[in-house]
């Protein structure tokens, strides 16, 4: 009776906790893929159907809807905003600036390089993520992790093979944008799992309004804001307003899922997922928009998907090993197992003493 009432924490840890955590992480990644591809297709539809070619304004709508959505979720009691001091608020300001600057550098670099070159350099984001994590956070990665990234990076290169024209300034800005993207992903993870421990919606609530203001400023500096005002006076329709509203709502859920997946997995996993999403976008373009690709492009898509699967397998395996309970140095008697005799117990005790 006493043995039956005794708690067994090792059995509990090895039973339900480990699979649930792993399943939850990858289910969030699955939703992230779905929403990311949905938003990509929806953005393409808005640009082609309504001729709304204003990327800064579209980004501003995304950040505004994300802030409003996070505020509504907070009012409904889904999370409690943390009380931050002056230093933490400054961190939020710098993070929002990093978020906006990453978008700005990426947009500017596209004017100086070809799309294929831009995609290939951006595919190096996992490499920069590893470098930042190792140098500044002291993280360590296994040899299998490094090996699993090789087919992924080479696959993205083959999938985006094409015109690799670029200028010296374009090369610098593209690499800088890639470093900023890796830094943003690492910082996002640290804000949520580090000292601040912010809820994903709380982070979205604090970051989105700041990013919206900064996006409007960049739009004004680029001259896009004046064009949008003229467009709204002449060509704005109710259908376009509803389309932009739905677009913003999808962006809110995507940002929330992205932050949550980042918190439950890792910065490196998110950058790998972004690479796989990039190739899946090409697949969507082929199937939905009848985009033509060559043999190397198709081979690169297959290799990228295989590389993403290899990394997921390695990450899942190593995560399971880290969560596996330590094996006892000697066998423990089970509550429902056979009862040892006095001689067997004495022999087992002698073995334990002799090994110490």
Automatic annotation (TrEMBL):
- The reply to whether Transmembrane figures as a keyword in the UniProt entry is yes
Q: Alphabetically list the UniProt keywords.
A: Membrane, Transmembrane, Transmembrane helix
The domain of life for this entry's organism is Eukaryota
Q: How does it sit in the membrane?
A: Multi-pass membrane protein
The Sugar phosphate transporter domain, residue ranges: 29-312
What species is given as this protein's source? Dissophora globulifera
Q: By what name is this protein known?
A: UAA transporter
Segments spanning the bilayer are 26-42, 54-78, 90-110, 116-137, 144-160, 166-183, 241-259, 295-314
Q: Give compartment(s).
A: Membrane
State a GO cellular component annotated for this protein: membrane
